[in-house]
């Protein structure tokens, strides 16, 4: 099968064995549609799927108001470099009141929309199976989207092959994927504190605020939205002093206020993936079906980011 993006450069036999196991697993799926965000996990699955079955693989990217600026364009460019067929679809999770109310199971409704649409498109896409980018490290966090994945028979090849985040990054680097060290980029809705309504206006505020910070050289960051239009900025602890320098602070605060934030705070604990999950009560961590939502006991891990 074509090497796609580039020639394999890995030298460790153990890494090559992991690559071969992943490719073999995907080959066993037959025609496969990869739920492809352009993040490192789904990009590795897309690369492996193309290696496994060539044009019988297709990468599908969902677009909605919760997608950060620039992510679609980056996903499109990566798909071109890999050589895999690529399709962009529109999802309508913002039309679902259960998604908008932003309870701790919000991601269930997002993934139900995504995987439900993909399931309905399989024949049109020329695919038999949906594959996600969930890896073994995703199983330890609150990720209710896995329940939606189970209800739609989604396969998780990275998990099936026992591959965690470090394995994924090593594979991406050996394949020459340019985003092998890209920070995780979960959906913008995951920045909004549970219980605060998700709206297109709020996710746009967050997106523009994070763009402002990235334009000033910051790479690993989150702007979290809290009650009262409060922005809680998370960056690595070593980056905190730079944000309180007078010339930066005096530009940042009015810029965020112009975007719609009334208060701007820095989190002194620094960047923490999934920090909003600390606000979830123990009772909420045992997912209960929402009204009208089916359940089949498939668990609560979602490899594509809830509350990140």
Task: Please explain how this structure is put together.
There is one protein chain. The chain has 308 residues and is α/β, with parallel strands linked by helices. Helices cover 41% and strands 11% of the residues. It contains twelve helices and seven strands. The strands form two sheets. The chain has a four-stranded parallel β-sheet with strand order 3-2-1-4, sandwiched between helices. The chain has a three-stranded mixed β-sheet with strand order 5-6-7, with helices on one face. Strand 1, helix 2 and strand 2 (57-63) form a beta-alpha-beta unit. Helix 2 packs parallel to helix 3, helix 2 packs across helix 8 and helix 9 (200-214) runs antiparallel to helix 11. The model is unreliable at 284-308 (pLDDT under 50).
Q: Mean pLDDT, rounded to whole units? A: 89
Number of helices: 12
Alpha carbon gap, first and last residue: 36 Å
Order of helices and strands: HEHEHEHHEHHHHEEHHEH
* Strands ordered across the widest β-sheet: 3-2-1-4
Number of strands: 7
Biggest sheet descriptor = 4 strands, parallel
CATH H-level superfamily of the largest domain: HUPs
Q: Give the name of the CATH architecture of the largest domain.
A: 3-Layer(aba) Sandwich
**Domain module count:** 2
Low-confidence stretches: 284-308
Strand coverage percent:
5-15%
CATH first level of the largest domain: Alpha Beta
Radius of gyration: 19 Å
What is the share of helical residues? 40-55%
Shape: globular
By CATH, the topology of the largest domain is Rossmann fold
Q: Structural class of the secondary structure composition?
A: alpha/beta
């Amino acid at each position: 099968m074509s090497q796609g993006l580039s020639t394999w450069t890995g030298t460790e036999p153990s890494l090559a064995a992991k690559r071969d196991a992943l490719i073999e697993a995907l080959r066993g799926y037959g025609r496969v549609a990869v739920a492809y965000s352009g993040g490192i996990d789904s990009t590795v699955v897309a690369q492996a799927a193309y290696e496994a079955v060539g044009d019988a693989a297709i990468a599908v990217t969902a677009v909605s108001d919760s997608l950060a600026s620039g992510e679609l364009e980056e996903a499109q460019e990566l798909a071109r470099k890999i050589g895999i067929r690529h399709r962009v679809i529109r999802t309508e999770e913002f039309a679902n009141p259960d998604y908008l109310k932003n309870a701790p199971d919000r991601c269930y409704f997002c993934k139900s929309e995504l995987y439900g649409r993909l399931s309905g498109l399989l024949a049109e896409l020329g695919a038999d199976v949906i594959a996600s980018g969930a890896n073994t490290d995703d199983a330890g966090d609150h990720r209710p989207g896995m329940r939606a994945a189970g209800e739609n028979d989604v396969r998780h090849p990275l998990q099936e092959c026992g591959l965690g985040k470090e394995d994924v990054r090593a594979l991406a680097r050996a394949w020459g994927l340019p985003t092998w060290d890209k920070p995780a980029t979960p959906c913008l809705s995951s920045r909004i504190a549970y219980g605060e309504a998700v709206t297109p206006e709020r996710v746009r505020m967050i997106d523009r605020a994070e763009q402002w910070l990235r334009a000033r050289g910051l790479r690993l960051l989150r702007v979290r939205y809290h009650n009262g239009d409060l922005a809680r900025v998370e960056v690595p602890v070593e980056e905190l002093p730079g944000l309180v320098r007078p010339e930066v602070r005096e530009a940042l605060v009015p810029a965020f206020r112009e975007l719609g934030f009334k208060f701007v705070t820095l989190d002194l604990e620094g960047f923490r993936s999934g920090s909003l999950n600390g606000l979830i009560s123990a009772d909420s961590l045992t997912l209960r079906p929402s009204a009208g939502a089916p359940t089949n006991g498939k668990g609560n891990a979602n490899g594509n980011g809830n509350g990140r």
